[in-house]
Amino acid sequence: MSGLAPPPPPQQQLVFNQPKIELHVHLDGAIRVQTILDVAKRRGIDLRAHTVEEMTRRIALEEPATLTVFLDKFNQYMHVVAGDREAIKRIAYEFVENEAKEGVIYVEVRYCPHLLANSGVEPIPWNHDEGDLSPDEVVRLVNQGLREGERAFSIKARSILCCMRHMPSWSMEIVELCKKYQHDGVVGIDLAGDESLNCEANPDHRRAYEEAERCGIHRTVHAGEVGPASVVKEAVEVLKAERIGHGYRTLEDQNLYRKLLKLNMHFEMCPLSSKLTGACHPDFTKHPIITFKNDKANYSLNTDDPLVLNSTLQHDYSIAQKYMGFTEEEFKRVNICSAQSSFLPEKEKQELLLKLYEAYGMIQSTAF
């Protein structure tokens, strides 16, 4: 069956009804449509859409496009939630509930505090006199929402703070926030955005990552999604990344790929996202993930931005099974790799792995 066929609908039967780990999902790309409508109504913002169906049609990317078109979808709703205390805490709480419904027992959710702090999606300076939130307050609100969600839905949620390639002036503040909340919910730092903006042109990113490494802050980098393999090489060698966000284009440099396989580098992969952003060939049967799978690489399966993709984690698993030859055993292996490559402290990581081993029948339960 051709991988060009429409992917299976999210409502289909569960293909892996076991505990899962998600390591690459953006908070601002995982908001409930109803929440956007509710907040817009409360704030008096006219969205020219009054139902979930109408708003979904405006936000959702249904056909393969470019990363630019994909990112432009955020402009449809970010101005609604950005700068709103109640909304930011709510989306964090609801995010945890959504993950729990997917069978996720541990998630690392990422976001840029500066983008959620401002009243618009365009990067602008904050004017605290006008009541805009500070990035620090955004982190505290997200942490509160995640903690309340953890208690309510019995899963573990941590966050990663994103630097943006086009805004190097934010990066040192991002790493300072990572340091401040290092033992209060924030487990790592990320770099996202236009991969053509390398770190030689923006040394502030490199300085932020050097400080992160010095302070024991875990590091991941969006690289090799639409940019060439050289961006992945820079992420590993210059930014000292421990994980790579996406990384599909690594295969264009086989020497680099083989080196990273030996280093057990973790790749955070997002099947449906990579098709709809134009990052990969639209035929799922030709997806780079198949090569990573066949080589027993260290990688995870993730949603990236389920709101914009109008999708779920189970949908990505369905795609992997239907078009990429994934088996139950490979799903288990991938989730164990995800837990091993998580940014949790070692003791918590071992506890998480134990939960997976028991759930997957790999060891006898120690529960009485």
UniProtKB/TrEMBL annotation:
Main subcellular location: other
Coiled coil: none
GO cellular-component term (any): external side of plasma membrane
Membrane topology, record value: Peripheral membrane protein
Superkingdom of the organism of origin: Eukaryota
Statement: the UniProt record of this protein carries the keyword Membrane: yes
Matching SUPFAM superfamilies: Metallo-dependent hydrolases
Limits of the Adenosine deaminase domain: 19-358
Catalyses which reaction(s): 2'-deoxyadenosine + H2O + H(+) = 2'-deoxyinosine + NH4(+); adenosine + H2O + H(+) = inosine + NH4(+)
Subcellular location(s) per record: Cell junction; Cell membrane; Cytoplasmic vesicle lumen; Lysosome
Similarity comment: Belongs to the metallo-dependent hydrolases superfamily. Adenosine and AMP deaminases family.
Protein name as catalogued: Adenosine deaminase
Organism: Gouania willdenowi (Blunt-snouted clingfish)
Gene it is expressed from: ada
